[in-house]
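User: Just a sanity check before I run the rest of the batch. Below are the structure tokens for the first item. I only need the designed sequence back.
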């Protein structure tokens, strides 16, 4: 079982201590006996321990920077939501395929933002602009927010904020099972709590440092029983030997565990594995022994956002994925809806 994340090293930006959450976190980490340093800015976090890039990367993944979110202009977050709401950046997991490896670049440490009220005020402006339409906010575009929330509780604060809102809904996804502190949040059904799930082969070989499938399913049951709308992201769908059996068994385990009421308003999002040339270089540097298949000749080229192309599966393989996994979902969860396949 993966234990809840505890950073080895914590940096505080000076302005973070001007906010109540920053002060609370400083007290908490001091009481935990963690090593605490100051930094003028997260960009100045350098000289992390380690004799080589491999060690520095791993040490960065266990470093937390407590700071202030300066940019309060939210990115769009299609197809899952209208906007990404930023509470944290970076992740303690070691998923080999993760796109954060390239977006985080040379700074793979985790950052949490303490100016939550300013972030909520910005969200409020976006909601007012679109009212009376509902605006969905995705809280896990740049991090696995659940993975650090047992320390910060900023996600819990967000759940309760959107629980009181008229025109906003919150969504996020996690690979972590550390959800107990979120069970009593007053969500009022306005947060969809999603879990990322995958075949045992993918979790075993490509998702180190995350909760295993039985733990995620057990946490999903708790979340359903706490009344949250529930969803699952099957991502990345990765073709490996026996993949049809692997994904079928995964969904059968899920169907067996979930209470009947939780299957009535259930969503699935299906995302195939893809990679870019820059991602391939970073993955092979950070995980030199990976079994991840990154052979461009076996893939189809597709233009991505910001003009960066990516390698996806062939049209025939994509149809096979949709038919196979979509068929399992239709059979096992007839009342669920598949939101998209990408």
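Assistant: Here's the designed sequence for the first item:
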């Amino acid at each position: 079982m993966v234990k809840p994340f505890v950073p080895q090293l914590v940096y505080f930006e000076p302005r973070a201590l001007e906010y109540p959450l920053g002060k609370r976190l400083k007290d908490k980490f001091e009481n935990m006996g963690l090593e605490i340093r100051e930094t003028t800015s997260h960009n100045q976090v350098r000289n992390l321990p380690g004799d080589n890039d491999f060690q520095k990367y791993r040490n960065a993944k266990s470093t937390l920077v407590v700071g202030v979110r300066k940019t309060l202009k939210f990115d769009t977050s299609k197809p899952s939501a209208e906007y990404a709401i930023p509470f944290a950046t970076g992740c303690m997991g070691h998923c080999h395929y993760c796109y954060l490896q390239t977006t985080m670049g040379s700074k793979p440490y985790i950052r949490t933002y303490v100016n939550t009220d300013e972030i909520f005020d910005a969200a409020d402006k976006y909601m007012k602009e679109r009212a009376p339409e509902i605006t969905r906010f995705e809280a896990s575009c740049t991090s696995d927010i659940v993975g650090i929330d047992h320390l910060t509780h900023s996600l819990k604060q967000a759940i309760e904020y959107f629980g009181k809102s008229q025109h906003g809904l919150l969504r996020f996804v996690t690979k972590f099972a550390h959800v107990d502190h979120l069970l009593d949040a007053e969500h009022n059904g306005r947060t969809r709590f999603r879990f990322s799930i995958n075949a045992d082969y993918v979790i075993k070989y490509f998702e180190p440092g995350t909760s295993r499938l039985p733990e995620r399913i057990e946490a999903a049951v708790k979340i359903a029983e706490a009344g949250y709308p529930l969803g699952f992201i099957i991502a990345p769908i990765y073709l490996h030997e026996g993949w049809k059996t692997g994904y079928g068994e995964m969904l059968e385990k899920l169907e067996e565990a979930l209470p009947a009421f939780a299957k009535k308003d259930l969503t699935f999002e299906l995302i195939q594995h893809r990679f870019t040339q820059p991602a391939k270089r970073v993955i092979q540097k950070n995980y030199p022994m990976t079994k991840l298949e990154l052979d461009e000749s076996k893939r189809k080229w597709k233009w991505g956002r910001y003009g960066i192309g990516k390698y996806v599966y062939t049209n025939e393989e994509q149809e096979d994925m949709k038919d196979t996994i979509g068929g399992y979902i239709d059979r096992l969860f007839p009342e669920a809806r598949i939101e998209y396949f990408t």
